[in-house]
Amino acid sequence: TVGAVAVDKEGNIACATSTGGMLNKMEGRVGDTPIIGSGGYADNLLGAVSTTGHGETIMKITLARLILFHMEQGQSAEAASDLGLAYMKSRLEGLGGVVTVDPQGHWAARFSSNYMAWAAAQEDTLHYGLYTGE
Amino acid sequence: MLPVVVVHGGAGYIPKERSELSISGVCSAVQAGYTILQGEGSSMDAVVEAVIQMENNPAFNAGCGSVLNIKGEVEMDALVMDGKTLGSGAVSAVRNIANPIQLARLVMDKTSHACLTAEGASQFARSMGIPEVPLESLITEYSRMRWKKNLAPDANPVECQMLG
Question: Which residues contact B17 (CB under 8 A, 6 or more apart)?
């Protein structure tokens, strides 16, 4: 799975997520990626999230919308992402990762899996990582 | 408010020998998206361009390089959402197109629907002039190797993590 979130100069926010799905999946299986609120969500008033991980679990907790709900309640992009992923792990033992932005351009790349390749560009600075803590 | 693009390349298993490919791929994709923002493009233009870059990069599980289903075929899903209008578009179980994210954007821009699937999505792609590509062009040696390996009853449980 791959995904992106962005905020432009006008303050408009968008998300995009695309996937080949799950290794050796059943024919016709559809995961979280094309499901609004699960594979991604964007709202200029709240922020945007693109998700990756165990699709069936992400769908059950509507991960993208859950994270934006936490942001609506006042959490930062990073804290809200961690709360959403922690809930998915504790409630359903599901692992995954997200990239998140808020309307001010604060961003987060967080994951509960062992790996997630991610990168961010802001103010002509490139940030990137693969392992937890990078 | 500072313009920003953030991308991910998936939470699945990344063997050590492919970690550099993944890192360089996400860095190239985010730079492509950020260039669009610097050039007065919209956030929607930026996220679609960043995802196209990764769909075209065989290091990632999307577009070319997608994992294979149990029959050894490629079925892809994609979603876009515009935070200004709450407009969205998605496709699921699509085959034989290089960039499902472009098709998802067309669903958002050109239809009144939220998601098109399977053969209906293919018909829509044809009506929009999206070229069909051979299945083989989306399959890499690496994805075929993983498919075969995971058909085996003693498949490595690490690789079998159910992470898309």
Answer: none
What pLDDT sits at residue B155?
Answer: 74
Q: Report, in angstroms and rounded to the nearest whole number, the Rg of chain B calculated over CA atoms.
A: 17
What is the value of ipTM here, to two decimals? 0.98
Catalytic residue numbers of A read 1
Residue whose tokens read 């995971």: B150
Judged by a CB distance cut-off of 8 A, whether residue A73 touches chain B is no
Which band of pLDDT confidence, cut at 50, 70 and 90, is reported for residue B154?
Answer: confident
**Tens digits of residue pLDDT in A74-103:** 999 999 999 999 999 999 999 999 999 999
What backbone torsions phi and psi does residue B134 show, to the nearest 5 degrees? -65, 145
B69–A29 C-beta distance less than 8 A: yes
DSSP-assigned beta bridge partners for residue A47? A43
- Residue A20, CA distances (Å) to A68, A126, B61 in order: 25, 27, 5
